[in-house]
Amino acid sequence: xxxxxxxxxxxxxxxxxxxxxxxxxxxxxxxxxxxxxxxxxxxxxxxxxxxxxxxxxxxxxxxxxxxxxxxxxxxxxxxxxxxxxxxxxxxxxxxxxxxxxxxxxxxxxxxxxxxxxxxxxxxxxxxxxxxxxxxxxxxxxxxxxxxxxxxxxxxxxxxxxxxxxxxxxxxxxxxxxxxxxxxxxxxxxxxxxxxxxxxxxxxxxxxxxxxxxxxxxxxxxxxxxxxxxxxxxxxxxxxxxxxxxxxxxxxxxxxxx
Length: 257
Hints:
This protein starts with a strand and ends with a helix. α1 (19-48) packs antiparallel against α2, α4 runs antiparallel to α9 and α5 runs antiparallel to α8. It is built from 9 helices and 3 strands. A 3-stranded antiparallel beta sheet has the order 1-2-3, with no helix packed on it. 72% of the residues lie in helices and 3% in strands. The chain has one domain. By secondary structure, the protein is mainly alpha-helical.
């Protein structure tokens, strides 16, 4: 004989059997695994395919959201609820101001200025503006925020505590940057100087440092997303870290030249 119980639980005489809950948990785990596999494939594709990057990013972000919605995630669970836009804008704006202040100090101090001398962004002003306001927001911020702080976050939240979601998504965000960091030591003057001074393999040390740094950045971005309930907060911090780095890099190259 069955009795009514908590949602998702079949209660039988003598105890509760959470069969539907187990099935839901398995479905959530399978969905999360599929998202992780898709992100791994996308990472490899993004690293080795050098044409149509913005279109790939837009298509991938849309596909991830469609999949998440098909799995029953709400816009609120994805950090995309309109009711949280104001909170997201406030938290995101504050993060941008903090990052800008740090970068001002960093680019003015000779000791830290080499960190802004990245050969990949040694561009004229039009190229800097294109990178900061088009390429980075669409090709980097959009896909990474949708992937890690929206879809993956929402999927993990179904079967993990909040702190585990934060740590797991942040570690995966760090690992996402392994391939892009393979040539960082040769592209960035500051990174190259640091790893060579340490007397270790430049590429290995640069990769490890990048993974650790971006994972820590993922923790900060994830906490902004958690506190605000909006992806806009973490996206603001993410944009400031990347795009303002390019803009202040232009200043650093001018001062260095």
